[in-house]
UniProtKB/TrEMBL annotation, chain A:
<feature type="domain" description="ABC transporter">
    <location>
        <begin position="6"/>
        <end position="255"/>
    </location>
</feature>
<dbReference type="GO" id="GO:0015833">
    <property type="term" value="P:peptide transport"/>
</dbReference>
<comment type="similarity">
    <text>Belongs to the ABC transporter superfamily.</text>
</comment>
<keyword id="KW-0813">Transport</keyword>
<dbReference type="GO" id="GO:0005886">
    <property type="term" value="C:plasma membrane"/>
</dbReference>
<protein>
    <submittedName>
        <fullName>Dipeptide ABC transporter ATP-binding protein</fullName>
    </submittedName>
</protein>
<dbReference type="GO" id="GO:0055085">
    <property type="term" value="P:transmembrane transport"/>
</dbReference>
<dbReference type="InterPro" id="IPR017871">
    <property type="entry name" value="ABC_transporter-like_CS"/>
</dbReference>
<dbReference type="GO" id="GO:0005524">
    <property type="term" value="F:ATP binding"/>
</dbReference>
From TrEMBL, chain B:
<dbReference type="Pfam" id="PF00005">
    <property type="entry name" value="ABC_tran"/>
</dbReference>
<dbReference type="GO" id="GO:0055085">
    <property type="term" value="P:transmembrane transport"/>
</dbReference>
<dbReference type="GO" id="GO:0005886">
    <property type="term" value="C:plasma membrane"/>
</dbReference>
<dbReference type="GO" id="GO:0016887">
    <property type="term" value="F:ATP hydrolysis activity"/>
</dbReference>
<keyword id="KW-0547">Nucleotide-binding</keyword>
<dbReference type="InterPro" id="IPR050388">
    <property type="entry name" value="ABC_Ni/Peptide_Import"/>
</dbReference>
<dbReference type="InterPro" id="IPR003439">
    <property type="entry name" value="ABC_transporter-like_ATP-bd"/>
</dbReference>
<dbReference type="InterPro" id="IPR017871">
    <property type="entry name" value="ABC_transporter-like_CS"/>
</dbReference>
<keyword id="KW-0813">Transport</keyword>
Amino acid sequence: MTEKVLEARNIVRDYHVGGGIFGKSRTLRAVKGVGFSVEKGKTLAIVGESGCGKSTLARIITLIDAPTEGELFIEGKKVDIARERLTPEMRQKVQIIFQNPYGSLNPRQKIGDVLGEPLLINTNKSAAERRDLAMNMLLKVGLEAKHFNRYPHMFSGGQRQRIAIARALMLNPSLLVLDEPVSALDLSVQAQVLNLLADLQDEFKLTYVFISHDLSVVKYISDDVMVMYYGEAVEYGSRDAVFSNPQHDYTKTLFAATPRADVASIKARLAKKAA
Amino acid sequence: MALLEIENLVVEFATASGPFRAVDGVSLSVEQREVLAIVGESGSGKSVSMLAVMGLLPWTAKVTADRMVFAGTDLLKLSDAERRKMVGKDMAMIFQEPMASLNPCFTVGFQIEEVLRVHMGMDRTQRRARAIELLKQVGIPDPEQRLSSFPHQMSGGQCQRVMIAIAIACNPKLLIADEPTTALDVTIQKQILDLLMRLQAEHGMGLIMITHNMGVVAETADRVIVQYKGRKMEEADVLSLFERPKSNYTKALLSALPENATGDRLPTIADYVTEEAPAEGAVQ
């Protein structure tokens, strides 16, 4: 039987907005009852436009934010950070990688320290152990030993994203939330980072929640796809089902809007233009 | 005669560690009513070469070219005052970050009318009427009300529409769009691309589309130039570029597209471009 690493049931998240001198405060429902589950070693892609609630959902899964309603299970265990403190063990299970590798690394911290810090905070390993583990991880993500004592500004965008991935893996998480991890990267670097993520998933049996708005990347990397629109999951199913037979109008719009880079569609466009 | 002709353009920046060559001998030409796409990754010099044409580079940049002619005017011999008269009128540019390229302190209407005042010398009523007409053209609902909106009151897609309205205000002969849809959602991207293509056809403009997205190239361009590290790698019409890419770099770019993936892993630039320095970010 396959193990469910992550299960969410009817997640709702409200934000309270406003309440200034003149304005009345109101409640904004960013996520409106979303449920899904991911099995070990699989990838769930969450697709949607800005403002659809996908990053709010990422914050809830990563245990940064508490859901207003709904239940979240990680490795079968119910987690409710609104009621009880998050234990270091739970914190180790879920890690997140952000979109912008220029913003997510402290410019005054050397790479070795970036990688050692999660261990320093969450474990009681000695400095030498931390150093060895950090060095191993650095090599694992395709960087070199000489990079250990360098600062973030000395790296390119793709290398920084590798560092962010390495940092997330330091605590041996079972679930990795990737919030648009490649959308700030060039095409060729994007390919390298996607390959690295696939390699790491095979090696560590990682489970990914991959948040993206790029359907071509989603089609390449995901097993299951969930399409979000204004806080609701309008479509949820296996990749092949969603891509071959989209049910909801919004999903169809999304597919139609994605630019196609194949020869047949170029020919069709040129023919239309000539006519 | 071509609308814009550039031969052997070189742009160098003076840096602390000596001159850095961002554009290295690029030649290109754009015909009237033609859509030329310039594709490349970051650092390929695609934006810098167009900023050089517009004369928008900082003083640290040194621009040289054998020839740089726009609509019969030699851009290399132009004085600053003459260039200011031309830029924004006969050739206009749209930038990547619509929110950042509009001035947050002024209303959208003021910013559109400013161009009309400076370049067309219209009076107040004419300007207002033209601004409303332009907003209508770029598909903004309620243009009369929207004139008094500030940029922060509009969405990213709407801001980009306003940028396009400003750019086409004086009926330019050439429009340069620098990654016009990179910051936008796919559905909005589609709308903006459709708008640009419609305006290009209606006004008979030359359009230079700078992008790193092969999908955008496939959907818009007539002809494509592929740039890498400041050099032109390939120039071809759009169909032959996708059907029979000649340079290794173009092949690499096309195969790195996730939709073209065949096996378990994606091919990377490093698999193709071996004779040259590895691409940025390549660590292998």
